[in-house]
Amino acid sequence: MFSYTIRRLGALIPVLLGMVFIVFIMIRAIPGDPAQLILGQQATKESIQALTSQLGLDKPWYTQFFEYLGGLFKGDLGVSIKTDVPISEEVWPYLTATIELSLVAMLFAIIVGVNAGIISAWFQNSWFDYIAMVVALIGVSMPVFWLGLMEQYVVSIQWDLLPTTGRDNIRDPVEAITGLYLIDTLMAGRVDQFIEVIKHLILPGFALGTIPMAIIARMTRSSMLEVMRSDFIRTARAKGMKMFWVVYKHSLKNALIPVVTVIGLQTGLLLGGAILTETIFGWPGIGTYIYEAIGSRDYPVIQSGILVIATIFVLINLVVDLLYAAIDPRIKYK
Amino acid sequence: MAEVANNTPPIVPGQIQAAEEKAVSPWKEAWKSFKKNKLAIVGFSIVVFFILLAIFAPLLAPHDIAKQELANKHIPPSAEHWFGTDEFGRDILSRIIYGARISLWVGFLSVAGSVIVGSFLGIIAGYYGKWIDAIISRIFDIILAFPSILLAIAVVSVLGPSLRNALIAIAIINVPTFGRLLRSRVLSVKEEEYVTAAKAIGMKDSRILIHHILPNSLAPIIVQGTLAIATAIIECAALGFLGMGAQPPTPEWGKMLADSRAFIIEAPWTVLFPGLAIMLTVLGFNLMGDGLRDALDPRMKN
């Protein structure tokens, strides 16, 4: 297991290098002079030249690439053109905001999705099964940005129950410690703020979690149905075991492998969906960060922001692979 | 096969007519089981409905989609305007009908692009193996290492926002899906005896690939392709929503949503209907894809 982990980490290196290279090339493939594009039509020749050398664009591309790569190894993600702040410092609050939103969405998706799938399989062809599967089908096909808008209209505008945008009350902002506001507010002992943060999380969390929830529910159901037909389940039933334990202990454990795969894949996709959700709910996450950088042509931010998300995505996939062995001892990695 | 059937001797009356029992083709078999699947038929009908909508848009749309009548701004759904009007007084139903053209066009064309490029790369990687396989597979790994919508956004931010560039971006992100599919098919088909036989009689590689390996991979391509169209339509709408796809006044569904967001309080119908159209189309392709999977290749079911 240990050597397998090491080998998988080793195999990541070419992928990560390739990712850096692709993003690097892409930013440089933008037609026209980036310095000109950033500064606009009125820019003087001197200012364009100054920015060109600040961006290092006057050097040959391979020098630029290795300088960028060398910087990455030292944790240097470059400097934002717009704010002049190092990206490695600037990105942190955005990143934690996205992580918090994604965790909440995923937690919701797993709890509701897995249980709905289990109950659907347990009472196959019951009304619950039908309703759950129709909802799941619609959920899979739902554009997340539309769902978000509809939530805002019904829950925030019509019913006036929850806030439409942001992470916290603007008039009473949360003091960031870890960046995860749910933890920060509790550390500060501010229960009122904690509730406020939860209120802000519900709508975006639900919007972002709907698609993974639907997919997890469908996968859990089909995986459970397969396991529940096997001999050892019949044996467990025959010896008089309670159905609840048969379902939640024996079946679930064996049905979990494909579910975990899907959960892992969905966590990665969640990062993509987060970009859309964040723009709708004014969530100050990394999606908003990159999206705004695209608007202001802040190329170092676009480049490094995409790399940060992609690296997290790759790492999540690795963790999922390693989790298989933990869940199913039959899988042995050599 | 047909020639063989024609060469069978005419049936003489009184003889046992065993020759009439022809082998049913696997495609007919699949169609039979597809027809029995109610959800699949619902999906198929939705898809056909939107395709007809797209083809006959000029005949079906009750109003001119470009005509702006500010006097008719934000009219709620009524007999005259079934889905109401937008902030420029344009008929939303008509714009949604025309929007079907754009979404389906992007869906079909981008997936066709991904299938062609992906199949080509996948077949080469699987058949020739060695370093060619190593390079192509790594490229797939790298593309798949990005969350797809993020990569699409990155590609569009390089190429510039337009519907065509959105289509290209969506096609690129789907290439590895088909590439990996074909590669694994080739790897398994390559070991089949009929391929060995084809090689033994001196068939050229290109002929083996086109006449034996490709037809044997058609079923999973169709299934995956149908599901990929659903994703492509959502991605196209997402890019349009972010302002990185279709540009005004194109009646693209995602763009329509983005433009009417600001008016959600006074005119919620401007946001409701384009979203419903996206959802319904995507649902149609998803249901059809699921049905095709069950019908064409039961082993592909998870």
UniProtKB/TrEMBL annotation, chain A:
Name of the molecule in the record: ABC transporter permease
Pfam families: BPD_transp_1 (PF00528), BPD_transp_1_N (PF19300)
InterPro entries per record: BPD_transp_1_N, MetI-like, MetI-like_sf
Claim: Glycoprotein is one of the keywords in the record: no
Keywords, comma-separated and alphabetical: Cell membrane, Membrane, Transmembrane, Transmembrane helix, Transport
Domain of life where this protein originates: Bacteria
Start and end residues of each ABC transmembrane type-1 domain: 95-324
Record-level GO cellular component terms: plasma membrane
Subcellular location per the Swiss-Prot or TrEMBL entry: Cell membrane
Species: Peribacillus glennii
Membrane topology (UniProt): Multi-pass membrane protein
Ranges annotated as spanning the membrane: 12-30, 101-123, 130-149, 201-220, 255-281, 301-327
Family: Belongs to the binding-protein-dependent transport system permease family.
GO BP annotations listed: transmembrane transport
Record flagged with keyword Membrane: yes
UniProtKB/TrEMBL annotation, chain B:
Cellular compartments annotated: Cell membrane
Major subcellular site: membrane
Any Gene Ontology CC annotation: plasma membrane
Protein name: ABC transporter permease
Cleaved signal peptide residues: none
Sequence intervals crossing the membrane: 39-61, 102-127, 139-160, 217-242, 262-285
Domain ABC transmembrane type-1: 100-289
Family affiliation: Belongs to the binding-protein-dependent transport system permease family. OppBC subfamily.
Keywords: Cell membrane, Membrane, Transmembrane, Transmembrane helix, Transport
A GO BP entry: transmembrane transport
